[in-house]
Design brief:
54% of the residues lie in helices and 0% in strands. The chain has 128 residues and is mostly helical. The chain has 2 domains: 60 residues, Ankyrin repeat-containing domain (Serine Threonine Protein Phosphatase 5, Tetratricopeptide repeat); 68 residues, Ankyrin repeat-containing domain (Serine Threonine Protein Phosphatase 5, Tetratricopeptide repeat), CATH 1.25.40.20.
């Protein structure tokens, strides 16, 4: 396994200390693992500390999955992780990004019944 694969695995399991250690050892925060995904794309969505750490180290918040077009913000919205969604937005994730099915993060939150996420994103949209 490569450092990027290890970093992606640590991110996927919400292992903040492991992510920090691998970044210190030189793992590329925007590198892709053997499945073609970045650590931010595979991170445990409920792990806000991992999201904040990756983003603070330069992870690109708007990287889209090549097969679906979804971004990490789409994933957080679909799964209902409002805290992670807020961190992604803090680091300039695009709430208007559309996936290959023309869905925005708010659309996926609505389809999944995450009313708190829908309301938050609608308020954000109204403020801009």
């Amino acid at each position: 396994m490569t450092l990027v694969d290890d970093l992606a695995s640590a991110a996927a399991t919400g292992n903040t200390a492991g992510v920090e250690d691998l970044l210190r050892r030189g793992a590329d925060v925007n590198g892709v693992n053997k499945y073609g995904r970045t650590p931010l794309q595979v991170m445990m969505m409920g792990s806000t500390p991992v999201a904040r750490l990756l983003l603070a180290r330069g992870s690109r918040p708007n990287v889209a999955d090549s097969s679906t077009g979804t971004t990490p913000l789409h994933d957080a919205a679909r799964e209902g992780f409002l805290d992670t969604l807020r961190v992604l937005l803090e680091f300039k994730a695009d709430p208007g990004a559309r996936d290959h099915f023309n869905s925005r993060p708010v659309d996926l939150a609505r389809q999944s019944g995450h009313d708190d996420v829908v309301e938050f994103l609608k308020l954000l949209e109204e403020a801009n």
